[in-house]
Every structure is written in C-alpha cells, then in structure tokens.
Specification:
Its main location: membrane. This protein is an all-alpha fold. The chain is about 70% helix and about 0% strand.
Length: about 290
C-alpha cells in the first residue's frame, strides 16, 4: 500500500497531463498523415504528402521566416530592455516601487485589449504615435500596413506587454546577488561597466536563461495580435506559424495540412529548446 500511495497522489495531475497534453500531440501527429475536412468522419491516409506540400509551399516558407524574425526581435528586445529596466528599478525607494507596479501593469492586461489599444496608437492617420512624430517633422508612417515594418510593429507590442514581467524577474535576481561582491569590486575600484558584465550578468544568468526560453516559446505562439490587427497581412508579411495553422485548420478546413504544420512547429520548438539547453546552459552561473 505504501508503494502505491505516491502513484495515487500524482495520478490526478498525470491524468490531466496525458489527456490535455500528450493525447492532443499524439492525435495531431496522427492527423498530419491524413486528409480531413473537420466535417466528414472519414479520414483519408495520405502519408507524407501534407509535409511535402508544406515544404514546397512558398507561403509556408515565408511564414517560417516571419516567425523567426518575430522571435528574434521580441526575445532580444524583451531581455535587453527588461534587464536595463530592472537595473534602473533596483533601488529601495518609494518611486522605484511605484514604477515597478506601473511597468508590470501591461502584463496583466488581456492581449485582446492590448491589441485594440495599439491598433489605435499605430493608426496611420489618427494614431497617437504618428501624432507625436509629427512634432519632429516626421510624416505619418503606416505602421501596420507597410510590408517592411509591420512584423516589427507587432513585435513592439509584444515587447511592451512582456517588459514588466521580464523586468521584475530580473529585478528579483538582482536583489539576490550578495552585496559583498559589489563591495569587493568597489574596493578594487572596478569600473561600473566591468562590474555589470563580469559580476551582475553572470549572477543573474539563471533568470536570463529561464526568461529567454520562455520568451522564445511565447513568441512562436503569438496569435491574438495578428488575428485582431493584421490578419496575417499585408501580403502575408505578418503571418506566423500559429495563425497559419489556424487559417488552414478552421478557415479552409484542411485539418491534416494544419496538423502537419503543427508538427513542424512542435519540432522547431523542440530542436531550439534542446540546442538552447545543450549550448547556452554552459554559460549559466549557478551559485
């Protein structure tokens, strides 16, 4: 009985994990080898045809490029700006505590609300952003309908929303760094930049490691902003993998094709995560 009891205690969580995580992944892989229109019960086995069609689809290759560009911009922007903001807020003052609450506020706002707010801010004719830029003599910029900058505009929205969360995680890591290390550096008359790169960054590297992998996964899952603001346009320039899967699965009823794209997304994330852990985990300093 004592040997069975631990398994009984973890059984509810294990069942939920199997039903809502493992089974959907397995069923998606199964569907990727079939054609199914979501209406008729018959599923036609097509083997690797869905994957061959994806690889030969120029639109899908563009979607992958968009996803990678979006991921790079959002991850770098979120981590770098979050670190700088955390360093700025790393003060034990009342103003600093107020600013911490203010910067975290966007993270708890629903993505739908954020999308509508930024759609107005970036409006080409009446947007607040262009209104301020006009004071500096800059003419109106079509942030969301220009194929060259639309994906970067959406990345800015993601960075703004996640900035407070990243900053607070890094801020907590900064506060856990022993003060005697900084005191020793001060005695040695070490320059501030050297202290930051040689002491601060290595000491907070576990938090940076965690945030980087979470931001990578989150950037590949982007959906709401694209669905509500650009719908993948203009000319497919903001279409990413999850929205592409949604379109083919629920707009065009090509469930097998969409499932194949989902399998590729799963493989991309898996390979990137394994590579990240294998290579960059060596740079993480655990005290």
């Amino acid at each position: 009985m004592k040997k069975i009891r631990p398994y009984g205690m973890v059984a509810p969580a294990l069942i939920i994990f199997l039903v809502f995580s493992i089974y959907p992944i397995g069923y998606m892989i199964y569907l990727s080898f079939h054609n199914w229109d979501l209406i008729n019960p018959v599923k036609q086995f097509v083997g690797m045809n869905n994957f061959k069609d994806l690889i030969n689809d120029a639109l899908f290759l563009q979607v992958i490029r968009n996803s990678i560009v979006y991921m790079i911009v959002t991850v770098l922007g979120s981590i770098i700006l979050g670190t700088l903001l955390a360093v700025f807020l790393n003060k034990d003052t009342r103003i600093s505590r107020i600013l911490q609450s203010v910067t975290f506020a966007p993270y708890v706002i629903s993505m739908v609300s954020v999308a509508f707010i930024w759609q107005w801010i970036m409006d080409a004719d009446y947007g607040l952003l262009n209104y301020f830029l006009n004071f500096f003599g800059i003419s109106n910029i079509d942030w969301l309908n220009n194929t060259s900058i639309a994906i970067f505009s959406l990345a800015v929205i993601s960075i703004w929303k996640s900035l407070g969360y990243n900053a607070l995680i890094i801020l907590a890591a900064l506060k856990s760094v022993p003060k005697y290390i900084y005191e020793a550096a001060q005695i040695d008359d070490t320059k501030p930049m050297k202290v930051f790169f040689k002491i601060t960054l290595p000491m907070i590297s576990p938090s940076l490691f965690f945030l980087t992998i979470m931001n990578i996964i989150s950037s590949f899952k982007v959906f709401e902003t694209i669905s509500l603001i650009t719908a993948g346009g203009p000319i497919n320039s903001t279409n990413t993998l999850v929205y592409y899967i949604y379109e083919y699965g629920f707009k065009y009823n090509k469930i097998g094709y969409a499932s194949a794209a989902g399998v590729i997304l799963f493989l991309i994330l898996g390979i990137m995560t394994i590579f990240y852990f294998k290579v960059l985990s060596r740079k993480v300093h655990y005290r």
